[in-house]
Design goal:
The protein is of the alpha+beta class and 97 residues long. The chain has helices at residues 14-30, 65-72, 75-78, 81-87; strands spanning 3-11, 34-40, 56-62, 88-96. The protein has a single domain (3-41, 58-96), classed as Alpha-Beta Plaits (2-Layer Sandwich). Strands 2-3-1-4 form a four-stranded antiparallel beta sheet.
């Protein structure tokens, strides 16, 4: 079953974001994933869940929930968390399709 991982992003530091972005793709690919879409939010139509503000998003695809979980908890990705924390606030979740 294919799994999408969606990240809702509120950018905090552009320099840290560029550093993070230059390294994260390698970690995704190592765990059989791909970065499908990156983009900025142009319009929010409803926010009935009262989500924190976010201005960008990313969509990743993995072959399975196990691959997505292995990536998110991998030593390679965890090594980027300190840079990510400077770069952005992030909500990350998976969706089985």
């Amino acid at each position: 079953m294919t799994v999408k991982v969606i990240g809702l992003i509120e950018l905090q530091n552009q320099d840290a974001f560029e550093q993070y972005r230059s390294q994260v793709t390698q970690t995704v690919e190592r765990y059989k994933g791909t970065i499908c879409t990156r983009g900025v939010v142009s319009k929010i139509f409803w926010n009935e869940l009262h989500c924190e503000s976010f201005g960008a998003f990313v969509e990743l695809t993995f072959p399975s929930q196990e691959d997505a979980h292995a990536w998110a908890h991998s030593p390679e990705y965890q090594a980027l968390v300190s840079i990510r924390s400077k770069a952005m606030k992030l909500t990350l979740f998976s969706v089985a399709i």
